[in-house]
Predict the structure of ARM repeat superfamily protein.
Amino acid sequence: MTKATKTNSSIAKYDEAHLHHDLAPSASSTASLGRKNSINHHPSEWWFDEDGLFNLDEEGRAKTQQCAVVASIIIRNFSFMLENEIIMAQHRHFLETVFQCIEDHSTGDEELVTNALETIVNLAPLLDLRIFSSSKPSYIKLNEKCAVQAIMGILGSSVKAWHCAAAEFLGRLIINPDNEPFLLPFAPQIYKRLVDLLSLPAIDMQAAAVGALYNLSEVSMDCRLKLASERWAVDRLLKVIKASHPVPEVCRKAAMILESLVSGPQNRALILAFENAFAEILFSDGKYSDNFARILYELTSRPNSKVSAAHGIWGVGV
């Protein structure tokens, strides 16, 4: 064999070895392919993978977090469109994801939580909490109680801007009678927190709290009894009216709440202590005189209020 032949043979073997090396999958590429195939075989589990869009617990994921925030903004914007509300309010996987963001408010991104709150506030009138126990596919273990607890957590959070959204959400959610069984077990905590919000100077906070209390007071006599028994409730509702909230509808609803409270016989003894304040508003503010006239009538015309007819409104001491 000539030297040239040996050289050509060596080159051929070298090229063949490199060709096989290039075609053979490396360990890293095999692992990557395996992960890809795994994801393809289980498309419903991508949300929980290491690179899932809303997996924000680990450090060093700034880009993923930015993507999640941008996605939440898009979803929030969708919720403002009437055409999208029904679809979004009936999509269990979507609602589970939004409520999970809210549930993780103490560790999650603040803007992400804010966008999630604004989204569910828009959808609240159409939202039926029973969807979390329906036959629709579930990807996150979240039930009706967890959803309400997530909102209660927001009401007690340190971010004041969230309190208004949470109060507004509860007020809209109770409109659907099917949601009552899930909200009423939390009624005492809800009333207490909403009454606390009435004491804050922020007018939007007061408006959200009054709106929620108005809807809750319309649910049942039991709700009215619990609200009337809440310390400072009547006093702070009166202060909202006396301070002339810039939105007249807020004052009107506050007066109507007081009117509904006095309709319960069990509440009259509690409310009678404010008789003088009611009379003052009756004679000084014509806008709500009808409401307070009816309130005073309820207080003074019932058999259990014989003594009240002789004092307070007429200025007669007893």
